[in-house]
Amino acid sequence: DSGVTQTPKHLITATGQRVTLRCSPRSGDLSVYWYQQSLDQGLQFLIQYYNGEERAKGNILERFSAQQFPDLHSELNLSSLELGDSALYFCASSVGLAGFDFRNEQFFGPGTRLTVL
Amino acid sequence: TQLLEQSPQFLSIQEGENLTVYCNSSSVFSSLQWYRQEPGEGPVLLVTVVTGGEVKKLKRLTFQFGDARKDSSLHITAAQPGDTGLYLCAASYMDSNYQLIWGAGTKLIIKP
After folding, report:
1. Do A45 and B100 touch (CB under 8 A)?
2. What pLDDT digit, counting tens, does each position of B81-105 carry?
3. Is B107 within 8 Å of A106 when comparing Cβ atoms?
């Protein structure tokens, strides 16, 4: 158990809909990262938050957005869903900010499997 | 732009055999991590290496960091079915503000 929790575990929805994925980082971790992993693919970095502020963006679509709340939990919002958005979505957390922690060791949650029908 | 290449992409071997997977970078990295991911689960950090030439062992897994800090390898001795999974390397680079760059992974299957 990494200490990172994600809900829900599974989500099935229809094209055009909007969903929200939730993540709680390990106790004491200030950074949260979101990743997308399609079937048999590697991890695609989406976005990072540190202590409530957006710090880095990867290949995140404009239809997707995220935020980190004062209690450090984070939500990833996916809207106008398309079939191609079906994937595993992972949240990871780390102690600090990548720029000051050259190790940047990340701890992953169990993921949310999103199926868009 | 840093690139991190893993090879092979896929490996299927019999239980008891040895194997090595590789992670190569286009640039010198500050640190490199290896993760293992089982199907439907999140990646789990196995090891972090930071010093050129460093060797770390985790039971039957041996991780090596190249002297020039541009490559790393993971060697598994006497592979077991429980080693099956996706092995990912991820590196941090000073000139990308230590954001992790991920390799595409090596999918390993160990047949009983």
Report:
1. yes
2. 999 999 999 998 877 777 888 999 9
3. no
